[in-house]
Amino acid sequence: MKAGIIGGTGKMGRLFAGVFTRSGYDVIVSGRSTRITAQDIARECDLVIVSVPIRDTVKVINTITPLLTKDQLLCDLTSLKVAPVAAMLKSKAEVIGLHPMFGPTVKSLKRQTIIACPARASQKTTDSLLSIFRKEGAICTVTTPEEHDRMMAVVQGLTHYVTLTTADAIRRLGVDPGKTKAFTSPVYAIELALVGRLLSQDPDLYGSILQENPFVPEVLAACRDSADELQKVISKKDPGAFTAYFKKNARHFGDCCAEGMAVTDAVIEGMVGQ
What we know:
By secondary structure, the chain is an alpha/beta fold. The chain contains 12 helices and 7 strands.
C-alpha cells in the first residue's frame, strides 16, 4: 500500500509520514520544493492525504479530485471540516476528513485526540484507518463535518478568542507581562503560559480557525454578551447578583468543575515541584 501526503514536507505532514511508515505504508510526500507533485500523489497512491494550510486546502483538493478513483481513500488534516469534506466529495474516492487535535511537536500520538469524519467510506475502510492511529495510542472521535465545525467554534474559536483578548488587554494597559511574574499566582502563570504559547505560533493558523469557521461568529457573540452581563454584575457591586451569575455557570458545568480542580491541582503541583 502506498500513502502520499500533499504538504508532507511541513511539520504535521512529516509527523504523519512517520505514523504511516511505521504502519507499513510506502510513504511519498510532495511540497513546494519537491520533484513529486500533488498530481503525482493523486495518480499513484492508495491513500492520499492533504496537509496544507487551511486557506489553501480546498484549492489544493480541487486540483486533484478529477484524478482520483473509487479505489482510493482521500483525507485531509485540516482544523475545519465542512468545506474541505465537501470539496473532497467531488472526487470518486472514499472520503474521511481528519483533524488532529494537537500540534506537530508532540512526541507521540499517545492519549492525543484525532477527530474523524467518514463522509463516504465503508466501515472497513474507516476501521482500518483509525486502527493505525489507535495502535499508536491515539483517541479517535467519529463525527460529522457539521458537528465538528460547531464544536471547534467553541473548543478552538472561543478559547483562542479569549486568549488573544487577554493578551491585547494586557498590551492596552501598558503592563509588562514579564514584570507580572513577581506577583503571579499559579493560575495566572498557567494563563500567561497559554498566551505565550499561542503568540509563539503561526498567526495564519489562528486567523484561519477564527475567520474561516462559519459557526465562530455566533460563539463570539455569546462571549461578548456574557462579558457585558458580567460587567453589569460587577458594576452593581451586589454580592447576591455575582453569586447568582457564578452558580448558574457552576451548575451548567456540573462534574467538569471537580475534574477541572483535579487537573489544575496536578498541573500546579508539577509547576511548584520543578
